[in-house]
Structure formats: C-alpha cells, structure tokens
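hey can u check if this looks right to u? its 276 residues, i copy pasted from the old doc so theres a chance i mangled smth
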Amino acid sequence: MASEEFGRTVRRWRDRVRPEAAGLPSGGHRRAVGLRREELALLAGISVDYVTRLEQGRATNPSEQVVEALGRALRLSADEREHLFHAAGLVPPGQGTVPGYITPSVQRMLDRLNGTPVAVSDAAWTLLLANPLYVALMGERHGNERNAVWRTFLGPAGHVRHTPQSQRTLEIAQVSALRATAIRYPADLRVRRLIMELRAGSERFAELWDGGAVGRHEAGRKTIDHPLVGVLTLDCDILSVAGSDLRIMIYTAEPGTPDAERLALLSVLGIQTLTG
C-alpha cells in the first residue's frame, strides 16, 4: 500500500538526519539514531500525532504541503523529494507553481546559522522552514498561520509590536508582493485560493487589493514581546535567493546589548521548551 511505503520511507530517512545538523540539541540519552518524531514534527511544522500516524501507515493521502514540508525537514535531494511525492501518491509540483524546494546549498547555509533565528518562505510568503531558534522566538505556526499575509489580515495577534504606520506599511508591502507572485505564477491554485480567502475574509485586504496598493518589504528593526525572555528589539533582514524566489528572514541583535543577552538566553530556554 502507498501509505505504508510512504511511512517506511519517512522513518528510514528520519534516521539519517543528525539532530545537530538541524540545529537541535544532541546531548543526553537518545534512542533514535537520527531525529525523534517530535523533532521531525517541529521542523516540518506539523503535529507529532500526525507524524506518528503517517509513519505507521494509519494516515492516508497526505497533502502536497505536508509532503513538501517533510521533504525539507528531512533534507532530501531533488530525486529523493520526487520519490517521496510518488510514495504519497502525488505528482511533484511542476512549472507554473510557486517553488517550494530548498536546495542543498541553501540548507547548508541555514545549518551554519543555528545560533540565529532564521526562516525561509516562498514567493507567496508561506513559511517553508524555520530553525528551532526562530520557532522559539516567534512561536509555532500550523496550517494557514504559516502564511504571513494570512496572519496579517486574518490571524491572531503575534509577538511583534506594530505602530499604526508600521502596520500599514506591512499590509501594503504584503499585498503588493502577493499580487506580483500571482502574476508570476498564474497556474498556482494555492495562491489563487489564498487571495480568494483573503478578499472574502478581510475588508482591509480587499480594499488594498482592489485599490492596487504598491509597496515593498524593507529591512528594519522589530520589537518582540516574548513570554519567556521579555522584550527584544532585533534587526530583521530579508535575503532573496536568486533563481528560486525563496526569501530568507534573519533576526540578529547588536553584540553586547541586553537584546543579545536575551536572544542567547532564548537559544537555551526556548529550544529546551520546544524539544523537551
């Protein structure tokens, strides 16, 4: 059965990934050779129960988004990613859709930044991969909450503080970026569904979309109210990966400041909380 083959494949490839390569603590007694189920779930942004059911062949028909997320968390090559899609009974995404594959070179770069909060999003601002320190800083995100535009217009308030002006600037930049993505990838049904949901659910989004709002994301500083370490003000930079439409978001603190000390504390407390 396809579901059993998919589960065996995920289990086998989970054993290959060393926790330290994924930015996770590797100390203490570990029964798992590679990643624990809890760690794979954290890296893929899905529940531990769902990972368990997938591996045991009790969950059938995983979505394209779930397979893509597991492929990234498992550090699969392009050929292995294609095999995982086929094992799930799916056709790998083709041309005309928003790219979601993170190349090995980008993955190696992220692995070397495990002491820095880093996340990768696609051209539609859907979170593809976040290292444990980013998750500890910004919180776990599942389902629709993994899309930044959805969170801004339809989601609950997050950890980041906004002034009325910064909120307006963010809204315009996200609408403008999503419009550009919809034009660049007209065959992507997920982007079209996202836009329809946002227009139906948010008068503000519909106003900006119909009004042709134009803006762009700028690097800047963000103040974050964190439940464990308090208030941090961090620099936020967004890097683009040529040829793939990936966006890499990096948070850093000026060395020797209280913000740097709080971020260092979070790298211990936050990751322990997530993986404990």
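The two ends are 34 Å apart (CA to CA).
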